[in-house]
Write a structure and sequence with these properties.
This protein is α+β, with helices and mostly antiparallel strands. The chain has four domains: 168 residues, Glutaredoxin (3-Layer(aba) Sandwich); 330 residues, Glycosyltransferase, CATH 1.50.10; 64 residues, no CATH class; 69 residues. Helices cover 50% and strands 10% of the residues. It contains 26 helices and 19 strands. The chain has a five-stranded mixed beta sheet with strand order 1-3-2-4-5, sandwiched between helices. It has a four-stranded mixed beta sheet with strand order 17-16-18-19, with helices on both faces. A hairpin with a 7-residue loop joins strand 6 and strand 7. The longest helix has 18 residues.
Length: 672
């Protein structure tokens, strides 16, 4: 066992028995590199990463290669999910140098942490124009020994160029607040990039555009735009019927390798499923779509069944790979079917029906004649289909399961809390809401240090040592605020306020209002990471802006509203330039344009009339709407519970009829 034997990250533990003498990221590793006068080899990945496993098996488990690597480098292994800050700054360098990035990420650094050579996956022998990993190691080692001055000059120049980018987003944040024209520009840009044939945006590989879909739903609610709703409905239907959606167990894979949503990259991530649960829930709320409700509920069931940990949190991911019937590790082995396998479980007649319903062909849609299950028909499953699904799911559960990365990431659990809390209320699923409450208790009890600051991860109920980053604060606050909106419990509002105070004091640039991904007192890296654009989940910047705006609406705090507005100015230039990559910022900006509206409920929480008003408000489509108990100046109406709808510090006359409340909150505002 190497130094990773004591790590808490499942990804690092996967490498604990490598012959490579891995170090965890930290001062000790760089001190060793200085003492030995050798470069650092930084390898970054995550537990569910297929090509990380491939490179590990091909190279890091090779005794001869490990001997050379250990002799000439200090190898450092990083879990990108534990240290998104380390991943971000070096991925920026990789992309700037090579024009692309990905994982595994492989970077060579000076003992001062300055990068000078870059790559991702390297094969064990020359292949497809790529050098072998051994050849790269030998070339870098020779350059370090023989051309040291040239190497260090390159490293200094790269760090200087990266440092020069630090003011870019602060400059963008000096723009005006996004207005209706910004929203129209974003919709137009998304329309141009929409895949008319397959739904979604762009070509292969195709990722679920969760945050963009949330913006489009809010834009439709605010303006009545049929174009915005059309993009959502077609994309959601295509994903739901495609192979990216697990037709048996619910939930979604990380992305589709093709443009048609047929063949997924089979790893399942918590953040994708939390975000998509909320999107499908909101689509059902807006349209009553039976498909959207089925997918939302099935995704919630998947979260509780397959990702929930013993401590009540949610695991990060399920692996793409698992063992097939012959004991070989293969991508997708757990999920794919042949016609013969269907018949073996269901019998000949039902097997043929299942093959037709799920698009399973003799030729297969994946590898070696196997097919990824789809739902090519436009009809919804009937009772016979449901019985067939349950039998297939039970049979699949007997297969060797994919590995699970069971570390709990604060940010992604915050997203899960928000999704499950809303779904629990709207779908009448108390188990979803109960799960959200238990997860919140874990986040507040385990993921906060003695000073109240967030910690990024935990595992088996024990917190990791890495500090929370901006997305942790933004997403956990989002979950807390949503839970407060659903339950009216002041504990969650107070806890969100404490986290957002840290955002204002530790993550915000006072001069520009721009936000940083790491706190002012965080471990210094070659540059302080900062990025308002979304990746697979909302950026820390836009997540924090959304939470600040909701908190301001709930508490009438001018300080938090001002901070949210300052953060959202960056959306204005990006709305027209890159709307696909600022979806959560656009969704938050749409909420800002709508108010956002607050519903203050006067009445005892346990009173059925109060509960009916709360559900009516939650079922409405007003962008960014929040719900909270009424203040002392908002009394009952003739002794009956009432709802006060407030927008931009002005409240309407109280409402006692739930139907009127929902209708009024779903109507398009006149000034929009």
């Amino acid at each position: 066992m190497n130094r990773l034997a004591g790590a808490t990250s499942p990804y690092l533990l996967q490498h604990a028995d490598n012959p490579v003498d891995w170090w965890e990221w930290g001062d000790d590793a760089f001190a060793a590199a200085r003492e030995r006068d050798v470069p650092v080899l930084l390898s970054v990945g995550y537990a569910a990463c297929h090509w990380c496993h491939v490179m590990a098996h091909e190279s890091f488990e090779d005794d001869g290669l490990a001997e050379y690597l250990n002799a000439h480098f200090v190898p450092v292994k990083v879990d990108r999910e534990e240290r998104p800050d380390v991943d971000a700054v070096y991925m920026e360098a990789v992309q700037a140098a090579t024009g692309q990035g990905g994982w595994p990420m492989t970077v060579w650094l000076t003992p001062d942490g300055e990068p000078f050579y870059f790559g991702t996956y390297f094969p064990p022998e020359p292949r497809h124009g790529m050098p072998s990993f051994r050849q790269v190691l030998e070339g870098v080692a020779e350059a370090w020994r023989g051309r040291r001055e040239e190497v260090t000059d390159v490293a200094h120049r790269i760090v200087h160029e990266l440092s020069g980018r630090a003011g870019v987003y602060a400059g963008l944040a000096a723009a005006d607040l996004p207005g209706p024209e910004s929203m129209r520009q974003a919709l137009a840009g998304l329309g141009r990039e929409f895949d008319e044939r397959n739904g979604g945006f762009g070509g292969a590989p195709k990722f679920p555009p969760s945050m963009v879909l949330e913006f489009l739903l809010r834009h439709h609610a605010a303006t009545g735009s049929p174009a915005a709703l059309d993009l959502v409905e077609r994309t959601c239907a295509a994903m739901a019927r495609g192979g990216i959606h697990d037709q048996l167990g619910g939930g979604f894979a990380r992305y589709s390798v093709d443009a048609h949503w047929v063949v997924p990259h089979f790893e399942k991530m918590l953040y994708d499923n939390a975000l998509l649960l909320r999107v499908y829930l909101h689509l059902w709320r807006a349209t009553g779509s039976a498909l959207a409700r089925r997918v939302a509920e099935g995704t919630g069931d998947f979260l509780l069944r397959e990702l929930r940990t013993a401590e009540g949190g949610f695991a990060s991911a399920l692996d793409a790979d698992s063992h097939d019937a012959e004991g070989h590790s293969r991508e997708g082995a757990f999920y794919v079917w042949t016609p013969g396998q269907l018949a073996e479980v269901l019998g000949e007649e039902d097997g043929l029906r299942a093959a037709e319903r799920y698009g399973v062909t003799p030729q297969g849609t994946f590898e070696e004649g196997a097919s990824v299950l789809q739902w090519p028909g436009e009809d919804e499953p009937d009772a016979a289909d449901e019985e067939m699904r349950e039998r297939l799911l039970a049979a699949r559960d007997l297969r060797p399961r994919p590995a699970r990365d069971d570390k709990v990431v604060a940010a992604w659990n915050g997203l899960a809390v928000a999704a499950l809390a809303e779904a629990g209320a709207l779908l009448d699923r108390p188990d979803f809401l109960d799960a959200a409450v238990v997860t919140t208790a874990l986040l507040l009890g385990v993921h906060r240090d003695a000073s109240g600051r967030l910690l990024r991860t935990s595992r088996d109920g024990v917190a990791g040592r890495n500090a929370g980053v901006l997305e942790d604060y933004g997403d956990v606050a989002e979950g807390l605020l949503t839970l407060h909106t659903v339950t009216g419990d002041a504990r969650w509002l107070d806890a969100a306020g404490e986290l957002l105070d840290v955002v204002l004091t530790r993550f915000t640039d006072e001069a520009s209002g721009a936000l940083y991904d790491t706190a002012a007192d965080a471990e210094p890296l070659i540059r302080r990471p900062q990025d308002p654009t979304d990746n697979a989940a909302p950026s820390g910047w836009t997540a924090a802006a959304g939470a600040l705006l909701s908190y301001a609406a709930l508490t009438d705090s001018e300080r938090h509203r001002t901070a949210a507005e300052q953060a959202l100015t960056v959306v204005t230039p990006l709305a027209g330039q890159a709307p696909r990559f600022v979806g959560w910022g656009l969704a938050t900006a749409q909420a800002l344009l709508d108010g956002p509206r607050k519903v203050a409920l006067a009445g005892a929480p346990e009173d059925p009339a109060t509960a009916a008003l709360r559900i009516a408000a939650l079922a409405a489509t007003a962008p960014g709407l929040v719900v909270t108990p009424a203040g002392e100046d908002q009394p009952l109406l003739d002794g009956a519970p009432a709802a006060y709808v407030c927008r931009r510090f002005t409240c309407d006359a109280p409402v006692t009829d739930p139907a009127w409340l929902r209708e009024g909150l779903s109507a398009i505002p006149k000034e929009a």
